[in-house]
Automatic annotation (TrEMBL):
The keyword Membrane does not apply. Residues 13-81 form the HTH gntR-type domain. GO terms for molecular function: DNA binding; DNA-binding transcription factor activity. This is GntR family transcriptional regulator. SMART domains: HTH_GNTR (SM00345). It comes from Nocardia puris.
Length: 122
C-alpha cells in the first residue's frame, strides 16, 4: 500500500514529511490497519525513488508518534494502538488550554491564537 505513495519533489514539503503524512492518512482512513507489515526502509526507498535516509527519517518520526512499531528483525508494522495522532492532538490541546488559563487569557483570545497559528502554518 505504501508503494502507491506519490512524492512531489517540487513541493515545499520535504519528501520525508510527505511520506509521513501519507502513512498517517492511510492509518486514519483504515487503508493501513494495526499489525500491517510495512516495507523495509531500503525496499520502500527503492520503490519510491528516495534516499534510504529520507525513508528512515519518516519511519523514525512515525515510530516516535506511535504510528508504527519496529519489532527487530521481524520488521516494522502499523502500531496496534490505533490512530495515536488524535490522542497526541488531544493532549496538546489540553496543555494549550492549561497555558492559556495560567496566562489569564479568555476563550476568544485562545481561539484567536489558534486561528492565527493555523493560517500561518498553511
Amino acid at each position: 500500500m505504501l508503494t502507491t505513495v506519490r512524492i512531489d519533489h517540487d513541493s515545499p514539503v520535504p519528501p520525508y514529511e510527505q511520506l509521513r503524512l501519507a502513512v498517517v492518512d492511510r492509518v486514519r482512513s483504515g487503508r493501513l490497519t494495526a499489525g500491517t507489515k510495512i516495507p523495509t526502509v531500503r525496499a520502500l526507498a527503492a520503490q519510491l525513488g528516495l534516499a534510504p535516509n529520507t525513508v528512515a527519517r519518516a519511519y523514525r518520526e512515525l515510530e516516535a508518534d506511535g504510528v508504527i512499531e519496529t519489532r527487530g528483525r521481524q520488521g516494522s508494522f502499523i502500531a496496534s494502538s490505533g490512530d495515536p495522532t488524535r490522542d497526541a492532538a488531544g493532549r496538546a490541546a489540553i496543555a494549550y488550554v492549561a497555558t492559556i488559563r495560567r496566562l489569564g487569557l479568555d476563550d476568544d483570545a485562545a481561539l484567536g491564537f489558534v486561528r492565527s497559528a493555523l493560517e500561518t502554518a498553511g
